[in-house]
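Predict the holo structure. Ligand: flavin-adenine dinucleotide.
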Amino acid sequence: MKTLYQAVVTKTSWITSSYLLLTLNVGVTVSVQAGQFAALQIPGVYLRRPFSIHDADGTTLSFLIKIVGKGTQKLAELKTGDKISVIYPLGNGFILSDKPAVLAGGGCGIAPLLLLAKQLKNKPTVILGGRTKADIVQLDAFAEYAEVKVTTEDGTLGTKGFVTAELTSLSQDTAVYACGPEPMLRALHKLAKEKKFELQLSLEAMMGCGIGACLGCVTDTKKDGHVCVCTEGPVFKAEELVW
Ligand SMILES: Cc1cc2nc3c(=O)[nH]c(=O)nc-3n(C[C@H](O)[C@H](O)[C@H](O)COP(=O)(O)OP(=O)(O)OC[C@H]3O[C@@H](n4cnc5c(N)ncnc54)[C@H](O)[C@@H]3O)c2cc1C
Ligand code: FES
């Protein structure tokens, strides 16, 4: 159940010039489903900001954060020992299938996939996609739990192209779990319809409250119409969404 915690920053480390790994100690062990997220109250920033839980181990939570604006910049200024208010676990995570798994992440969309790779019974394949080599992070962390493939749009690392380039030979016996920019998710949905593989997507919608109160994060679904991504998602089956 979602709860507010006063967490303590145990580590902040720059992975690249634009990606930060933030580690917090929340003081209690909470069961987290891969794909769930936390709302962090960043000092000096009005609204909480949502971040996928990158890893959860005992009382430790970690977040992979791409610095894009005021809030994420302020997060990067946190020091070991600082306190931060965290509400988690929020939303619904990925439903684990017994089928062979392929995890596809684009940019900071790779964040929820590390915990997912850890939670799956069988070793999955993870495809990390980015525009260029500098966008590909956490290779070693993923390699502990998955077979890792890389795609970059400019070909500076791995296969040249989009993550879909590594998915064209998939069969309907595969379950694909993905998170990333909207065009990537749209392309995956198209491919899933062609190849008939299962596809779950985590949507990184803009969010205000993160707890279902502001209606700032709605998405359109076939069965239930407009729903809040923060409470009904962020993970959805691709075929449930109106594209
Ligand atoms: C469920 C969920 C999980 C997320 N997980 C992660 C994660 O693990 N790691 C991570 O780095 N980011 C994640 N995000 C995105 C993250 O919440 C935003 O990047 C962050 O809130 C931006 O805050 P800011 O104050 O730095 O930027 P702002 O100053 O608020 O915005 C800066 C720029 O980023 C854009 N932006 C803000 N929020 C989003 C968003 N949700 N999607 C796309 N663009 C956005 C704005 O349009 C603006 O152009 C997640 C978002 C959601 C909804
Ligand atoms: S972010 Fe407020 S309802 Fe979802």
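Residues 132 and 152 are 5 Å apart (CA to CA). The chain has two domains: 3-90, 101-204.
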